[in-house]
Amino acid sequence: MTPAPPRGPEHLTLALPKGRILADAISLLSRAGLPLALPEKSRALRHEFPGVTLLELRNQDVPVYVDLGVADVGIVGKDVLIESGRAVYEPVDLRFAACHLSLIREVGATGPIGRVATKYPRSARAYLAARGIPAEVVKLSGNIELAALTGLADAVVDLVQTGSTLRANHLEEVDVLYHSSARLVVNRAALKLRRARLRPLIERLRELTAEEATGG
Ligand SMILES: Nc1ncnc2c1ncn2[C@@H]1O[C@H](COP(=O)(O)OP(=O)(O)OP(=O)(O)O)[C@@H](O)[C@H]1O
Ligand SMILES: O=P(O)(O)OC[C@H]1O[C@H](OP(=O)(O)OP(=O)(O)O)[C@H](O)[C@@H]1O
After folding, report:
1. In this structure, is residue 59 part of a structural domain?
2. Which atom of ligand 2 is nearest to the CA of 168?
3. What is the chain's Cα-based Rg?
4. Are residues 85 and 188 located together in one domain of the fold?
5. What is a single molecular function from GO for this protein (predicted)?
6. Which of 19, 58, 60, 171 is deepest in the core (most CB within 10 A)?
7. For residue 114, what are the domain limits?
8. Quick count: other Cβ atoms within 10 Å of Cβ 117?
């Protein structure tokens, strides 16, 4: 693939995660005035729109691209942002992809927690350390609830939205670590260099999310 050409300060490079956030992110950014459309299904990972380059990434890579300045701006879940440990500027809570990260066990489980399985080891370790629980944390990649069902772990730390995954697997939430939703993230140097494009975008997104919160 050809390297990206040098971009003037009027150009934006945008990092979005493929997966459940992509369509809502593109819809919201379009309403905020960016000339975007959902990319056609293809193997292409970089998409050009007038004045905007869209990079299609894994969730965990969005904070990395924004923090290191390859992308000027991105959208990612607060859960992924916390887990990344990167201090990127996070000016707008976009409110969609709302869910919470919880400690989950089999219904009625009361024994000690010796091992916790999760996709969120940083968050899980911080939670356990704050409560003085000396549990081992095992990082898994998906279908985390299975670890509690199979006895791989005494508890799991995973996202809950409707609770239907918990109900379908005879699991229950024991505690909530934190609430998450999609966030706008901005590279701090880009905020200065591309101020003329980023400031109005941030303002418009603040207005749109406030309107949606009040039903406007
Ligand atoms: N059930 C859910 N309901 C609402 N929001 C969710 C739900 N599950 C995840 N999210 C939010 O959407 C984001 C993206 O979720 P998605 O399912 O696309 O990721 P994934 O495919 O599990 O991630 P990965 O890139 O690690 O494979 C999560 O980081 C979280 O912020
Ligand atoms: O409370 P619910 O509405 O059931 O949503 C929660 C489920 O959604 C997410 O899983 P996802 O579908 O992204 O699969 P994954 O476990 O492979 O990440 C999350 O990890 C839970 O399993």
Report:
1. yes
2. 4
3. 19
4. yes
5. glycosyltransferase activity
6. 171
7. 99-178
8. 25
